Amino acid sequence: MNVVGIIKEYLQDFVSLIFPRICINCNTILVYQEEHICIKCRLSLPKTDYHLQNANPLKSKFVYEPKVLGVVAYLHFNKGGVAQKLVHELKYRGQQEVGIMLGEWYGYDLIKSNWPVDMIIPVPIHKSKLRKRGYNQADCFAEGLASSMEIPVRTDLVERKKSTMSQTRKSKVERWQNVNEIYRVTNSAELQGKNLLVVDDVLTTGATLGELVVALSEGGAAGIYIATIAAGK
Length: 233
Prior knowledge:
By secondary structure, the protein is an alpha/beta fold. The protein is 37% helix and 16% strand. It is built from eight helices and six strands, in the order ααβααβααβαββαβ. The chain has helices at 3-18, 39-43, 82-92, 96-110, 127-133, 137-149, 172-178, 207-218; strands at residues 68-76, 119-122, 158-160, 183-185, 195-203, 223-231. The strands form two sheets. A four-stranded parallel β-sheet has the order 1-6-5-2, sandwiched between helices. A two-stranded antiparallel sheet has the order 3-4. Helix 8 links the parallel strand 5 (195-203) and strand 6. The mean pLDDT is 89.
């Protein structure tokens, strides 16, 4: 390690002593090279391992669309659990690095699936919400996946054409009604014959992702795979 690197490491250690970084899940102090979550909590993450299963509960949510070839989620989402805490940090506390980190970790798992993916498409958010939040959490997850899977991310091929109310407290029927026809493909020529990996933060009923899948399918995509950070009931 060169002199600059040694000085930088000492400075990081000094700052950590004054402003200790803590694990998002268990609140223990993070040590050198631990980021956002401690190694103990990382090893106990509630992984779904759906990418290793030919059939899983998430795939059944998209049976109406034959172009959907695979649906997976990295973690099980439980109220108060680590997955909820990680998504909360990413989505509401500006911790974009959390999404990138999770994407990188999951990307190495998804490589084992041998999906013939040509590009990654993050679920877009409306321009008004993007201005307010400053970033799209799905873009962060996509960036991490792209890093480990070495697949390009495209954010310019589809847009969210209208804003909607939050899905959090809505029933299944209300969720589908709330997101009806909210996406528009902006460049169908780039989608022709391509296999897409569509990514988002959390999958519950599949209403939001379902609308995007329909738009991409009608826009010319050959096959569609779906991956999210977490999946709820």
